[in-house]
Amino acid sequence: MANGPSFFTGGNMNSGNYDSFGNAFKRGFMRMPVAIRTIIAINAVVFVIQMLGGQTLNNWVVPTLGFDPSFPTFLTQPWRLVTYMFLHGGFFHFLFNMLWLWWMGRAVEETLGPRSFTVIYFGAGILGALLDAGIAQIFGTALVIGASGAVTGILVAFAMLFPTAPIMLFLFPPIQARFFVAGWIAIDILFLGSADGVARLVHLGGALGGFLLVKAHQNGTDLSMVIRYVEYMFGKVKPAGTSGSGSKRPRNKNMHIVQDAEIVEEMDQSELDAILEKISKKGYDSLSQEEKRKLFELSKKD
User: Fold this and answer.
1) Which UniProt keywords apply (predicted)?
2) Cα–Cα distance measured from residue 101 to residue 151, given in angstroms and rounded to the nearest whole number
């Protein structure tokens, strides 16, 4: 905590220089990217309700909103494809899902933008549930809850966008993101069918969803349009390019989509790796304004 405030400065403790924990927490929370902030907030609220409601509430909520892969339930009750992602079976189940989402998801959202990030997150979670439903008859059906499939999709997205970024794990040397995520997926494959209570098919489907969606993004598909259409349905501005003749503006192959818009400048890979390593070791807030500008201010919103 070398960068933290000193408690022995000789100053007046009541001088107003020390903020309350509540205000500091609020500031830190509001500095999260908007999509991650919203997803974590909803998960936290639902988890608190689950805990306060106790066994009685959970005996109704989990069977009603958890994902049931049995036929025809997953077809006749499609809301479960989304609602299951916001339910968790315990504190550590909730905590680690949200920590992985925060640790790995921040760079993804700030690179692709909140709309594209949201599409990848929910797309991975939905595809994970569908894969589970499609193959569950082989391994046995069981009710599924938790954000693990969606979070796995974000881990894959991070590894595809920043393959050589170091992942720092306790007691382990730095591991490049591509190898770490590959190992994560390999464990799920090895333990398929084991009676450990982990929905490994959902993880693998989430990984596949993250891979396919990031590939689509890299090939020029504007993932953000999915969210823009939803916004339009709720009275916001109609997405650009949906009126007139319907023709699509030719896309420059040297451009790629970032923060829901296209940019023409690319950062040198070694420079990007150095910045990502700094984020991994010291956090995003350790970046200089110039580094933040280079990393995230290349894109302009429409």
Assistant:
1) Hydrolase, Membrane, Protease, Transmembrane, Transmembrane helix
2) 6
